[in-house]
Design a protein that fits this description.
- One of its GO terms (molecular function) is phosphorelay sensor kinase activity.
- It is a multi-pass membrane protein.
- It is found in: Cell membrane.
- Keywords: ATP-binding, Cell membrane, Kinase, Membrane, Nucleotide-binding, Phosphoprotein, Transferase, Transmembrane, Transmembrane helix.
- It catalyses: ATP + protein L-histidine = ADP + protein N-phospho-L-histidine.
- The two termini are about 30 Å apart.
- Helix 2 runs antiparallel to helix 5 and helix 8 packs across helix 9.
- The chain is rod-shaped.
- With about 450 residues, it is α+β, with helices and mostly antiparallel strands.
- A hairpin with a 2-residue loop joins strand 9 and strand 10.
- The strands form three sheets. A five-stranded antiparallel beta sheet has the order 1-5-4-3-2. It has a five-stranded mixed beta sheet with strand order 7-9-10-12-11. A two-stranded antiparallel sheet has the order 6-8.
- Among the domains are: about 140 residues, Sensor histidine kinase RisS, periplasmic domain (Beta-Lactamase); about 150 residues, 2-Layer Sandwich (Heat Shock Protein 90), CATH 3.30.565.
- Helices cover about 55% and strands about 15% of the residues.
Length: about 450
């Protein structure tokens, strides 16, 4: 198959590195467990408090009401009619207690709407006799109504329900909701304080993974001793890795520089001293290959971060395809839906495409024709650009796929024609990671190897 279409990217299974990972954030795990613990403690405390406070408060409220009724009844019983009227008016004005005759046609609602009210009613009946009635409303007027008799005459005593304290379950519910909200806010603050050092450590590790050792330093003056020790150890490790990386770059650059001088002399001497044209051509090719291998080492050891900017993917692919147009053993087919812009470094992305094409040319030739048929397709998805470079060769053994991007690793097919340093795909992966992209390799269903690239849109 020499042609492809954007549908190739839809039907091919996405590599694991490109699939979104779903997981519970450590902050929310910590917050959830702290909140669960605090709310459980609040509920347990509330139930314990109510159990210990319920009975004494009910008895105390009943005693207060009984004392108020008994005093009012005694004062009214031993006073004449004129004094009784004055006394009733004084109780209403100064004590907020209203006494009125109880009529047979009065409609009242008993004060037994909750366990607390029932307990008060039982206590009042015990203290004042069986004829005592405790109601929460009489003739539609709410309050605490107590019915009693004086010398055979029935009366109602009305007092403010606040004398009994909070009786309704809504009060407890308000306190519970308030305590729960405060507990959740406290749990969120504690979870944030606990997870902040871990978040900083994760960010520093990701920066160090991308080669930015200077930005990965952690605070060594934090108050928590364990976090301080971890930060100090991490910073020392980053310093050592930075030094090792610098030494490696200097060593590779020095070796490459020192090798290029004798290679240049060898090329000159070959051209001047070897008479056989065929032998001279082979020796020149070997020297060129050694020079290309040195370039690979320099590319892999390159420490400078890439300069990202919006680039035309179409132009970069066209330039890479134009560079291999003279090869007789390679055919490249490009299918792009339209102009596509990516956020990348122009030189680095051009090197990536060139390495993938060279890898396909060397190891992805079709067995029947001996020609490398390469398909390049791309499409935009959300804030990303998906690029696929696919050959129609024999593919790679499944167990070797994860090793292809390791430095100096070559598969069985590569070893039979070992003309490189085994750094091409390693350079591709490292370069894409430095540009904030993703790289993965996968065998295609119809044969051949497919390279999947994921870059941010420009």
């Amino acid at each position: 198959m020499q042609g492809t279409s954007p549908a190739i990217l839809e039907t091919a299974p996405a590599p694991l590195e490109m699939r979104p990972r779903v997981g519970l954030n450590l902050f929310w795990r910590t917050f959830f467990f702290l909140a669960l613990l605090l709310i459980g403690c609040i509920v347990a405390w509330l139930q314990t408090f109510r159990a210990l406070e319920f009975e004494p408060r009910a008895v105390q409220s009943a005693q207060q009401l009984a004392s108020l009724v008994n005093l009012s009844r005694a004062a009214l019983k031993y006073s004449d009619s004129i004094t009784r009227v004055w006394l009733i008016k004084t109780l209403a004005d100064e004590e907020g207690v209203r006494i009125s005759p109880r009529e047979p046609r009065d409609k009242y609602e008993l004060f037994v709407n909750d366990p607390f009210g029932e307990r008060i009613g039982d206590e009042l009946t015990t203290r004042m006799g069986k004829g005592t009635v405790v109601a929460k409303s009489v003739n539609g007027v709410p309050g605490v109504w107590v019915g009693f008799t004086i010398d055979g005459d029935s009366y109602w005593l009305l007092t403010d329900p606040s004398r009994l304290g909070p009786m309704q379950g809504g009060t407890w519910l308000i306190w519970l909701i308030t305590a729960a909200i405060l507990s959740l806010l406290g749990a969120a603050l504690i979870a944030r304080l606990i997870n902040r050092p871990l978040k900083q450590l994760s960010f520093a590790a990701s920066r160090m993974r991308d080669g930015d050792f200077d930005a990965s330093l952690l605070d060594e003056q934090v108050a928590t001793s364990e976090i301080r020790e971890v930060n100090i150890g991490f910073n020392r490790m980053a310093e050592q890795l930075s030094k090792i990386e610098e030494d490696r770059v200097i060593m590779l650059a020095g070796i490459s520089h020192d090798l290029r001088t004798p290679l240049a002399r060898l090329r000159l001497e070959t051209e001047m001293s070897v008479a056989d044209a065929e032998a001279r051509a082979h020796m020149a090719a070997d020297i060129s290959q050694l020079d290309a291998i040195i370039d690979k080492f320099l590319d892999y050891a390159r420490p400078d971060p890439p300069q990202l900017s919006p680039l035309s993917l179409n132009a970069i692919i066209d330039a890479a395809v134009y560079a291999v147009a003279e090869y007789t053993d390679m055919r490249v087919n490009v299918t792009l839906p339209g102009p596509i812009t990516v956020l990348a470094d122009e030189v680095e992305l051009s090197r990536v495409i060139a390495n993938l094409l060279e890898n396909a040319r060397r190891y992805g030739k079709t067995p029947e024709t001996g020609i490398a048929m390469v398909d390049i397709a791309a499409k935009e998805r959300d804030q990303w650009v998906l690029i696929k470079v696919r050959d129609h060769g024999t593919g790679v053994a499944p167990h070797a796929l994860s090793n292809l991007t390791k430095p100096f690793f070559r598969g069985d097919a590569a070893r039979t024609a070992a003309t490189g340093a085994g750094l091409g795909l390693a350079i591709v992966e490292k370069t894409l990671h430095r540009m904030g992209g993703v790289f993965a390799l996968a065998n295609t269903g119809s044969g051949g190897l497919a390279a999947h690239i994921k870059l941010r849109r420009g």
